């Protein structure tokens, strides 16, 4: 599903050069649930953002669904990302001025779907995460776990084949974290969604199919 070949990422400023990702090659199979662990600053988010086509590598090749995405134009990339990928971040990244249902509909605005279809799909996604009773709330009227569930609904509303999650349980207590984890496990099992999750939590990582450990930008296991 995803093939990374010798990916390198260097961040350059006037004074410093940081090698954030140092020659990573990784295959993620369709339907796999992969977790990524490693100390702070070892390149986990950078690697996830590269896999999610939010950031470009300095070197190396990325293939998603057997397509070499480095050849895509910006417009093709945006379209591909919107259709194939869903993102979940540690800090939710919701829009506070929009009600829950409108937050979840956002990814669909870039597609040719009707207002009715968008609403139905958003309602369905919110049902999946157990938030049918909060459609008209605003994000700041929700608990952390509920906000993260809204973010998951937004990530899955377009039925992406791949979900990329950067510490999705990092801001939650363990009970809420386990609930979020259950939702991800069910998406993977029932819908066959490929999931790549960065986590600091060994317990969460051990619930996934495979664990990759990074250190200083390189894969160690
Ligand atoms: N925009 C940037 N410019 C310069 N250096 C950066 C930039 N983004 C990240 N880095 C550097 O790249 C390295 C990897 O960062 P990254 O955010 O991928 O780490 P991480 O493993 O996700 O850490 P954490 O667990 O703290 O989230 C770090 O040393 C960081 O300082
Ligand atoms: Mg990070």
Automatic annotation (TrEMBL):
Record-linked PROSITE patterns: ABC_TRANSPORTER_1, ABC_TRANSPORTER_2
Presence of keyword Transport: yes
Gene3D superfamilies per the UniProt record, alphabetical: P-loop containing nucleotide triphosphate hydrolases
CDD domains assigned: ABC_MJ0796_LolCDE_FtsE
CC annotations in GO: membrane protein complex
Keyword Translocase found: yes
Domain ABC transporter: 2-220
Domain of life, per lineage: Bacteria
Keywords (A to Z) from UniProt: ATP-binding, Nucleotide-binding, Translocase, Transport
InterPro entries according to UniProt: AAA+_ATPase, ABC_transporter-like_ATP-bd, ABC_transporter-like_CS, MacB-like_ATP-bd, P-loop_NTPase
Gene Ontology molecular function: ATP binding; ATP hydrolysis activity; transmembrane transporter activity
Family (UniProt): Belongs to the ABC transporter superfamily. Macrolide exporter (TC 3.A.1.122) family.
PANTHER family: CELL DIVISION ATP-BINDING PROTEIN FTSE (PTHR42798:SF6), LIPOPROTEIN-RELEASING SYSTEM ATP-BINDING PROTEIN LOLD (PTHR42798)
Protein name per UniProt: Putative ABC transport system ATP-binding protein
Provenance organism: Pedobacter metabolipauper
